[in-house]
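Support request, please re-run this one:
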Amino acid sequence: MEISPPTLNLRVGPSLLKANITDGWVTLKNLPEKHPMVMGIDPSLLSTGVAILYNGRLKTFRLQPPKGCVGAARLGWLYTELLRIIGHHGVPIVVGIEDYAYGAKGLACQIGELGGVYRLAFYANSIPYKTIAITSLKAFVCANGKADKEQVSKELFKKYDINESHSAWSR
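Re-run finished. Output below.
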């Protein structure tokens, strides 16, 4: 008995796309099979999210430094892992990186350092990047720029018919 891969619905621009998951890649239908590679980064000291969209396929990663890896060692680990992904999958034509959370308390300096490390990785490798305001991301998904993470996650799963068990967000 053949089992077909799970299907996702993703919205890219005005169209709703169907997607199939195979070998960690999500194959998007209704997208050109050949288009340039782009990358998205959701920076975090504990769990950076990375997404690559290339030739109609999407692959996501979560960069989680080893326990006890702190300070400059953590920044170095995250820098190296990001470049390892780029080295393995290819250089994107552009990277979208989530902007700093200016209202965040506690680790603002460390998060700023991380953003600088990622931007340095792109600069040093001649990879153009665009900073994307957090409120823009939230408004795109929820029509509310002030939505919390739980609302955004819930809306993503509902809006795009994502099966949580096959989602990088649930890993």
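Confidence is low (pLDDT under 50) at residues 1-22, 165-171. The CA atoms of residues 63 and 78 lie 7 Å apart.
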